[in-house]
Design goal:
- The protein has 554 residues and is α+β, with helices and mostly antiparallel strands.
- The protein is built from 16 helices and 23 strands.
- The protein has three domains: 267 residues, Orthogonal Bundle (GROEL, domain 1); 106 residues, GROEL, domain 2, CATH 3.30.260; 128 residues, GroEL, CATH 3.50.7.
- The strands form eight sheets. Strands 11, 12, 13, 14, 15, 16 and 17 form a seven-stranded mixed beta sheet that branches. Strands 6-19-22 form a three-stranded antiparallel beta sheet.
- α2 runs antiparallel to α3 and α4 packs parallel to α16.
Length: 554
């Protein structure tokens, strides 16, 4: 609203609400702190799980940061930015989502203290930016090299990612599966390795134990053969990948056929059957003895395939077709007229197996398979889901370690080392930015502090001990939450990929800087800056809005 000659002029809807200055900053900071606090207790091997219940009663039990934030259905605009931090971390690395969000929340908490001291938000942002650049330098300097051949270290990355999850009891066995899977699909390019995580398929099957999980050097197709007369297993398989229906095509336009002579009807049926026989003949002539079809297969075609001892599967997902092509070296053809022996993929064996009452096809014994499948087993649906999330975290961690060839120590060791270097750096900067850099360093210490809190340890004693060890030169001293002591965790194989730390620092810092620079929140009609509809600008400062899934969090 503006005034012109004493007459008020409304430039926004009367229903719109607005928050300015410190009120807007505090509202945003408190919302983000509430999100960080909500998932903080899940951090580390001793972290707790969250139970998320949606509006129709479906529940998820997990301690995976990005899963929790996705299910919370946040409405507050600033809180949504915390979800973006987790999503970016998940997409770029695949692990460390909770770490990134907790650091962002602590950066904003420290910034709130600086605002109370009348330090301008742009000064805080500038200090945070300087601290971020220095932190990234330190991380690069302290990181240790890891190579493709160091399978033990890669497995240690997976073990660290799985510790604290449902799969922890079998982490030695499962970490080997993860390492083998990533190594199988890795491709060397310009001196580094590229890993396409889409080439590692994870199939869940409820039933059995976690130790029944297995790595298939090939592709598992959650389908069964289309005809009981077809073979259930094929050795030395020549595989046709077909992206067209093995059926008689319908006319493109509506057409009506009138048959006055009964013999003509039989002739018409015979003609259709002959077309289907011709299709099967083309498949047989190509040399294929296995067919994976992305679309339908006519019953008559199924019959002739069975007579020719061809194993066929229909309505295979596009993603599975692409994995089969990558694994077996076959080409996906869109016309049977173009199918020849050069388009066929090869596999040592294809078996139809019964897994927990469901029939699945195992395409195995593929030399240098460039697509693999992990079959995840577990006693209940929720256990299987959580183990799948653990696999995804572990696979992402190994892929990142191989891609960049750098790893760092876990257990808060890396954060304490970076914080120590930042405090020394702050003394050389001077000015008010020095306060912001020191706050950044203290914010990084939230990781070892949270790890100790979640393990029931005294965080003050832990931090004092860790700082002393780092000052004396033990850069990988971290908190062993099982023994309660500060130890060199790198030597105990508690390691993480460098990218987890660099991405977390970058995302957390950039988001904190962005939120700090907001001093005016204008909410459209019917939606308040607190995140809830019609809550008004004077709502509670930590307004989390419509945290739908949080209603069932325990």
């Amino acid at each position: 609203m503006a005034n012109l000659g004493g007459q008020p002029i409304f430039i926004m809807s009367e229903d719109a609400t607005r928050q300015q200055g410190r009120d807007a900053q505090e509202n945003n900071i408190n919302a983000c702190k509430a999100v960080a606090n909500a998932i903080r207790t899940t951090l580390g091997p001793k972290g707790m799980d969250k139970m998320m219940v949606d509006s129709i009663g479906d529940l998820i039990v997990t301690n995976d940061g990005v899963t929790i934030l996705d299910e919370m259905e946040l409405e507050h605009p600033a809180a949504k930015m915390m979800v973006e931090i987790a999503q970016t971390q998940d997409e770029e690395v695949g692990d460390g989502t909770t770490t990134a969000v907790v650091i962002a929340g602590e950066l904003l908490k420290k910034a709130s203290d600086l605002l109370e001291q009348d330090i301008h938000p742009t000064v805080i942002s500038s200090g945070y930016r300087m601290a971020k650049m220095k932190a990234l330098e330190v991380l690069e300097e302290v990181a240790e090299d890891v190579s493709f051949s160091e399978k033990d270290k890669l497995q240690s990355v997976a073990k660290t990612a799985m510790t604290g999850k449902s799969s922890e009891s079998s982490k030695d066995y499962l970490s080997k599966i993860c390492a083998d899977a990533v190594v199988s699909v890795a491709e060397k390019y310009d001196g580094s390795y590229r890993i396409d995580r889409d080439l590692i398929k994870i199939v869940k099957s409820q039933g059995g134990s976690v130790n029944d999980s297995e790595l298939i050097e090939g592709v598992l197709i959650d389908k069964e053969k289309v005809h009981p007369g077809m073979p259930s297993s094929v050795d030395d398989a020549d595989i046709a990948l077909i992206n067209t229906a093995i059926e008689v095509k319908e006319t493109e336009t509506s057409a009506e056929i009138q048959i006055s002579d009964p013999s003509k009807l039989q002739e018409f049926v015979d003609q259709e059957e002959e077309s289907l026989k011709e299709m099967v003949r083309k498949i047989k002539e190509s040399g294929a003895n296995v067919v994976f079809c992305q679309k339908g297969i006519d019953d008559i075609a199924q019959h002739y395939m069975a007579k020719n001892n061809i194993l066929a599967v229909r309505r295979v997902k596009k993603s599975d077709m692409e994995k089969l092509a990558k694994a077996t070296g076959g080409n996906i053809v869109t016309s049977l007229n173009n199918l020849d022996k050069f388009d066929l993929g090869e596999a040592g064996s294809i078996r139809e197996r019964n897994v927990s009452g469901d029939k699945m096809l195992f395409v195995e014994d593929i030399e240098k398979a460039k697509s693999v499948t992990i079959l995840v087993r577990g006693g209940t649906e929720h256990v299987v889901d959580e183990i799948e999330r653990a696999f995804e975290d572990a696979i992402g961690g190994i892929a990142s370690a191989m891609k960049f060839g750098k790893i760092v120590g876990g257990g808060g060791a890396t954060e304490i080392e970076v914080a120590k270097e930042l405090k020394d750096y702050a003394d050389s900067v001077g000015g008010r930015e020095q306060l912001a850099i020191n706050s950044f360093a203290e914010a990084l210490e939230v990781i070892p502090r949270t790890l100790s809190e979640n393990a029931g340890l005294d965080p003050i004693d832990v931090l004092v001990d860790l700082r002393n060890k780092h000052e004396s030169g033990d850069k990988w001293a971290g908190i062993d939450v099982f023994s309660g002591k500060s130890e060199n965790l790198y030597d105990k194989d508690v390691v993480e990929p460098l990218q987890i730390k660099t991405q977390a620092v970058q995302s957390a810092s950039e988001s904190a800087e962005l939120i700090l620079r907001i001093d005016d929140v204008i909410s459209a009609s019917g939606f308040s800056s607190d995140g809830g509809p019609d809550a008004g600008a004077g709502g509670p400062p930590a307004g989390m809005g419509g945290m739908g899934g949080m209603g069932g969090m325990m």
